[in-house]
Write a structure and sequence with these properties.
Blueprint (H helix, E strand, L loop, with lengths): L1 H34 L10 E5 L8 E6 L2 H12 L2 H6 L2 E6 L3 H10 L4 E4 L1 H6 L2 H5 L1 E6 L3 E7 L8 H5 L2 E5 L5 H13 L8 E5 L2 H9 L5 E5 L13 E8 L3 E5 L5 H16 L4 H4 L2 E2 L1 E2 L7 E2 L5
Parallel strand pairs: 2-3, 2-4, 7-8, 7-9
Antiparallel strand pairs: 1-3, 4-11, 5-11, 5-12, 6-9, 6-10, 13-14
Length: 297
């Protein structure tokens, strides 16, 4: 009996050691996770560059939905004189899903963010984090774009079509509005052959390659080279374009003006007239009298 008791005691001690070790490991892992930089848990894709300010440890964080925009803007800002006076590094993040935008905007992680007004309003980001618009892109129209025929807004048309949407729930032209159309047509989404792409460009590529029959997007000048304007059907008009928002812009007008100049130059360099129609929200004069132009939204 004593031998059996010793065995039970040993088993209990061993079990206790294992449990304590496991708990210690889990606590250690949780502590390590909590010590990770906050941004690392949001997205894994980023780009960084040093400004002309040697030894400056402060970082300017920007966020956009696409890599080309984010990296191009970061590189230009790293060479900007005003940015170099204030920051030693520019960190650019991008993400292809609305979760990334929601995380950055909802937590106020980015100094400069490209976002849609409806999301800014949803998080009350103006009053919570002091986000002010720097520049804004024009309103636009959403379309169904077909490859070889004009899309019809009736239920029967879509049932046998390969349809392309944006995998980005906050995209109005590529996600919200087309889904509203399907609902109005009394179409169950489960009955449709829908492919979700991570960008409007990806949708266009799939349509051009014959992988899709119809996509939901906006129409731009360069689309004439690949598609026919006779094969588009409007599904929404006067949709507010995205805006670049700067956190606590009212407290840093020098930075607001520097960013506005850079973003406007980038917009004018685009081949599409849509981007060249970007609106400036800051009145920046040579006399350094900076004034915010109230949004007309």
């Amino acid at each position: 009996m004593q031998s059996l008791k010793r065995l039970r005691d040993r088993a209990l001690i061993l079990t206790t050691i294992i449990i304590v070790g496991l708990l210690s490991y889990l606590v250690g892992e949780r502590s390590a996770a909590l010590q990770l930089p906050q941004l690392d848990n949001v997205v894994e894709t980023s780009f960084s560059c040093k400004s002309k300010s040697d030894g400056n440890k402060t970082q300017l964080t920007i966020f956009a939905q696409s890599q080309p925009i984010a990296t191009d803007l970061a590189q230009q800002l790293c060479n900007n004189a005003v940015v170099s006076k204030q920051y030693g590094e520019v960190l650019a993040y991008w993400g292809g899903t609305s979760q990334h935008e929601v995380n950055f905007l909802g937590k106020g992680l980015a100094h400069l963010i490209l976002a849609k007004d409806n999301l800014i309003d949803a998080f009350d980001a103006r009053s919570t984090y002091g986000y002010y618009p720097v520049i804004g892109y024009p309103s636009y129209t959403a379309y169904f774009i077909g490859s070889h025929e004009k899309p019809r807004l009736d239920k029967a048309y879509f049932l046998d079509k390969r349809i392309g949407l944006i995998d980005y729930p906050t995209s109005r032209s590529g996600h919200i509005i087309p889904k509203q159309v399907f609902k109005e047509l009394d179409i169950n989404l489960d009955t449709l052959n829908i492919t979700f792409a991570n960008s409007h460009q990806s949708l266009r590529d799939k349509l051009a390659k014959g992988e899709l029959d119809v996509i939901a997007s906006y129409w731009q000048q360069t689309d004439d080279e690949r598609f026919s304007a006779n094969y588009i059907t409007a599904i929404g008009s006067n949709i507010s374009g995205s805006h670049w928002y700067l956190k606590k812009a009212a407290d840093n007008p020098d930075l607001a003006c520097a960013l506005q100049d850079t973003l406007l130059s980038m917009a004018k360099a685009q081949t599409s007239t849509y981007f060249s129609g970007a609106k400036a929200y800051w009145q920046c004069s040579d006399a350094q009298t900076v004034q915010f132009i109230e949004s007309d939204r």
